[in-house]
């Protein structure tokens, strides 16, 4: 009778590895669906508490309706989802999660798809606001500053170190970001802020909000709008004497 002996190091582990990979992939997919369901439930609860409308389904037209915001024009297969809609301080508010895809090639020329997600809050000020971007400053800004691509600096060195500010109208930037607003922003959560037309958007560049951050983003936008100087409001409303 022949006896087969499997010597150490001769066992083929490839089938076992494949099975383990499949199990991990399935487990991750189940976990992602579970987390997505919890997020939908939490956002529905938030909307109900605030008297807002909540729509979990995909909205493929958000980039077209708000094409002035460059963050909504990245990549392809763009859509919003988990959309919150309502009013805050008699201003129209829109909150949402957002998805887009980009592509790359590996060393063998095979295309890889990269999925990107972030969250945003959009508030309609009802005013003809001018273009203005306020975002966290990072190391690359220091490098570009060396080549003359400087942002707008303010009297507060703390504010100028923390925030990168860009606008085609420097006076407008100084009108909006005065001393009281700088102090408010230095003591508030940090977001990317973009003023375009009547709208102000607050978002994270590459991550979705925690549920509480939707409220924090609204509070930051509202805090800036509520601190616009009276002379600027008169000017924007065409009531300058």
Task: Write a brief structural summary.
The chain is of the alpha+beta class. The chain has helices spanning 14-50, 62-65, 139-146, 157-162, 170-176, 179-186, 211-225, 230-236; strands at 53-55, 76-88, 91-105, 111-124, 132-136, 163-166, 192-196, 199-203.
Walk me through this protein's architecture.
The protein has 241 residues and is of the alpha+beta class. The chain has one domain (54-236). The chain is 38% helix and 27% strand. It contains eight helices and eight strands. The chain has helices spanning 14-50, 62-65, 139-146, 157-162, 170-176, 179-186, 211-225, 230-236; strands at residues 53-55, 76-88, 91-105, 111-124, 132-136, 163-166, 192-196, 199-203. The protein has an eight-stranded antiparallel sheet. The protein starts with 13 loop residues before the first helix and ends in a 5-residue tail after the last helix. The model has no long low-confidence stretch (mean pLDDT 88).
């Amino acid at each position: 009778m022949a006896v087969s002996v499997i010597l150490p190091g001769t066992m083929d582990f490839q089938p076992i590895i494949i099975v383990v990979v499949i199990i991990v992939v399935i487990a991750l997919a189940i976990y992602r669906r579970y987390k997505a369901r919890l997020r939908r439930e939490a956002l529905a609860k938030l909307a109900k508490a605030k008297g807002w409308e909540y729509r979990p389904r995909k909205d493929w037209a958000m980039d077209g309706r708000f094409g002035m915001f460059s963050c909504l024009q990245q990549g392809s297969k763009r859509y919003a989802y988990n959309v919150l809609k309502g009013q805050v301080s008699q201003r129209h508010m829109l909150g949402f999660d957002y998805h887009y895809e980009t592509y790359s090639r590996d060393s063998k020329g095979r295309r890889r798809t990269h999925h990107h997600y972030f969250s945003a809050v959009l508030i309609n000020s009802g005013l003809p606001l001018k273009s203005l971007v306020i975002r966290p400053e990072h190391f690359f800004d220091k490098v570009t500053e060396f080549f003359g691509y400087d942002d707008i600096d303010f009297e507060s060195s703390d504010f100028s170190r923390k925030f990168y500010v860009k606008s085609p109208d420097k006076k407008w930037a100084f009108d909006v970001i005065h001393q009281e607003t700088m102090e408010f922003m230095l003591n508030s959560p940090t977001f990317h802020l973009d003023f375009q037309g009547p709208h102000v958007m607050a978002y994270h560049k590459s991550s979705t909000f925690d549920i509480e951050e939707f409220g924090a983003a609204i509070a930051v936008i509202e805090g800036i709008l509520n601190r616009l100087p009276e002379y600027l409001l008169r000017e924007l409303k065409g009531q300058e004497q």
